[in-house]
Amino acid sequence: MTRKVGIILGGLVCALAASTGCAPGKSGISQLGPYLGARPDRIGRLPPRPRVRRPRVTQAGPGRGWTPARGISNRWQCVVIHHSGSDKSTPQGMRDWHVNGRGWQALGYHFVIGNGVGYGDGKIYVGERWGKQMHGAHCKTNSNHYNNHGIGICLIGNLDAHGPTPKQVSALARLASFLSDKCGIPKSRVYTHGGVTNKTACPGRYFSLSPVLRQMSVGGVSASSK
């Protein structure tokens, strides 16, 4: 009896194996898909490249290089205008003299405006002091107020011999308008170097502040104008 039961059970097992596709000596595991759960990453796949932020490039122009990355300090109370005294001056040449010749930290002015000889006519150079919102080194007085709170702008040229170019005047008015708007500086506090100290003719006998102030009042000349 026991032997008969064993034979019957053996026959049932073989029949069941045949109906499920299993063959003697083969495991049902081999019929499963090659991946369980999520498919693994491709072998040798490189990790994604991290995004690299490009450094901010300072460019001359309203709202771009004129606005430092960290914003504008509330220290500024006036604008002081100068001339370089030579038609062949360049921003880099003046900086080299101020740093190596005078031992200053950087170019003494915050901005320089070219005359078209060694630097573009009406092109505005943004100095390191403005980028870092540092005090100037352009208008020494007993209290040093105009260095600590005055924005120094230098027109390239010998304005004791001739006047500034029309593009220089236009660029100066545009820049002064921007600074007036951003720093709350009224036109009444746009000065000349000689007007402040009464010890120099800078920015030259042929420079007149009136055309600059007139252009500042024109609606088309503003902080957002190109």
What does this structure look like?
- The model is unreliable at 4-38, 52-62 and 219-226 (pLDDT under 50).
- The protein has helices at 2-19, 91-101, 128-131, 145-149, 166-183, 193-197, 210-217, and strands at residues 78-83, 111-113, 124-126, 150-155, 190-192.
- It is globular and about 55 Å long.
- Helix content is 31%, strand content 9%.
- It contains seven helices and five strands.
- The longest helix is centred in the N-terminal third of the chain and has 18 residues, at 2-19.
- It has a domain at 78-216: 3-Layer(aba) Sandwich (Lysozyme-like), CATH 3.40.80.10.
- By secondary structure, it is of the alpha/beta class.
- α5 crosses α7.
- Strands 3-2-4-1-5 form a five-stranded mixed beta sheet.
CATH class of the domain at 78-216: Alpha Beta
Strand order of the largest sheet: 3-2-4-1-5
Contiguous helical run count = 7
What proportion strand? 5-15%
Question: How is the biggest beta sheet arranged?
Answer: 5 strands, mixed
Q: How many strand segments?
A: 5
| Helix content class | 25-40%
Mean pLDDT: 79
Which descriptor suits the 3D outline? Answer: globular
CATH level-four homologous superfamily name of the domain at 78-216: Peptidoglycan recognition protein-like
In the predicted model, the low-confidence regions spanning at least 5 consecutive residues are: 4-38, 52-62, 219-226
Write down the CATH topology of the domain at 78-216.
Lysozyme-like
Q: Given the helix and strand composition, which structural class is it?
A: alpha/beta
Order of helices and strands: HEHEEHHEHEHH
- The termini sit apart by 108 Å
